[in-house]
Amino acid sequence: MSWDPDRPFNDLPLLPPAHELETRAVLKRTIAARAALASLEQASRSLPNPAVLVNSIQLLEAQASSEIENIVTTSDELFRFAHDEETASDPATREALRYRRALFEGFALVSRRAVTARTAADVCSIIKQHDMTIRDRPGTFIGDPVTGQRAYTPPVGRSTITGLLSNWEDFIHQYGDLDPLVAMSAAHYQFEAIHPFEDGNGRTGRVMNVLILVEHGLLSLPILYLSRYIIRNKSEYYRLLLAVTAEEAWEEWLLFMLEGIRETSLWTLATIDGISALQEQVRAAMRGALSGGANADLLEALFEEPYCRIRTVMERCRVSRPTATSWLSALADRGVLIDVRAGRERLFVNRAFLRLLQQDHGPDSGSPTRGEEPVLF
C-alpha cells in the first residue's frame, strides 16, 4: 500500500481489508470482550430504572471523548449543568454536553433506521452546532500543532470521500463472518482515516461505535463508556491508528480496541454493583431522616444524576415544592446530600454517587471491585 503522510490518502484501502483480521490472538481477545459485554448487557436489563445508568454514563463518555480532542471540562461541571447546557459559562462544558445530546439523539435515530453516513453527519452536526457536510476543500492538517510535523493527510475530493463512506456503510451492515466487535473496531479505524468532515470526526466516530453495537443487538442502551479507556491510553490509540495506515498493523489495533471493550464493560458492571449498594444505604438513611416517610420515587430521583434539583423531585414524586425541599434538606442535614447553590438554583449533590462515578474500579485501583460496597458517609 502506497502512503505518504504529506499527500492525501486517496488510495485508502476499502473494507474489509485484504489482511486476515481474526487471527488467533484476536479471536481469543474477542471471546473475553464478548463475555464482558454480554454480562454488562444482562446487568443493564435488570436495572429497575435504566436512567440511573444511562444519564451518568452518557455524561462521562461525553467528557472523556471531548478530552481526547483536548476539549477539557470536569465531570462535576457536566453533571451540574446537565439540564441546561446553555447556562454553562465554560465553552468546553457546553461542547461536551452537545456530545451527550448527539449520543442520545443518535441512539434515538438507530431505533428508527440503520446506521448510515447520514447518521454520522447528523451526529457531527449536533456536536458542532451547525450543519456538517462532506469536506470539499484540501488542507486538513493532522499532526503536531507545535512542531508542524504532519502525521497523516486524509483523502480529498467529495466524490472520493463519498465513495469511501459508502464502502464504510456497506461494511458495518455486511461484514461476513467477522465478529461484530471486530467489525466495529475495523470500521472505527476506517472512519478516522476517511475523516469526512472539517471537524468533529473523532467524537463522531466514537458515537458511531456505540450506535453500531446497539444496531447489532449487543447493547440495548448506550452505556459503553469506551472513551474512558481511550483517554487513559491516548498516545497508544493514535499510535495504533497510524500503524494501521503505515504498516497495515491490524492485529495490534484490534487487540487494543477489544481490550477497551472488555475493560470498559467490567468497569460499568462494577459501577452498577456500586449503585445498587449505595441505593440500599440511602434507602436506610431515608427511613431515619424522613420521619413522615417519603414517596417511593424519591430514591430513583436521587440517582438519576448526582446533582438533584428540587423541581426534579417535584416532577418525579408528584409533590409540592415545600415537600420536595423538606425531603432534600433533611437528607442534607443527615449528610447524605450536600446543599449547594448554582446561581439562583439550589442543588443537592449525591456525593457518594458522584464519587463512585469518578473513581476507578479494580483490584489495583484502591477502589471497590464487584461485590464490595462503597461508603455513603
From TrEMBL:
GO MF annotation list: ATP binding
Residues annotated as binding ATP: 69, 195, 199-206, 237-238
InterPro entries, per the entry: Fic/DOC_N, Fido, Fido-like_dom_sf, Fido_containing, SoFic-like, SoFic-like_C, WH_DNA-bd_sf
Pfam family, one: Fic_N
Source organism superkingdom: Bacteria
Catalytic residue positions: 195
UniProt keywords, alphabetically: ATP-binding, Nucleotide-binding
Signal sequence range: none
SUPFAM superfamilies, alphabetized: Fic-like, Winged helix' DNA-binding domain
The keyword ATP-binding is assigned to this record: yes
Residue intervals of the Fido domain: 121-259
Designated name of the protein: Fic family protein
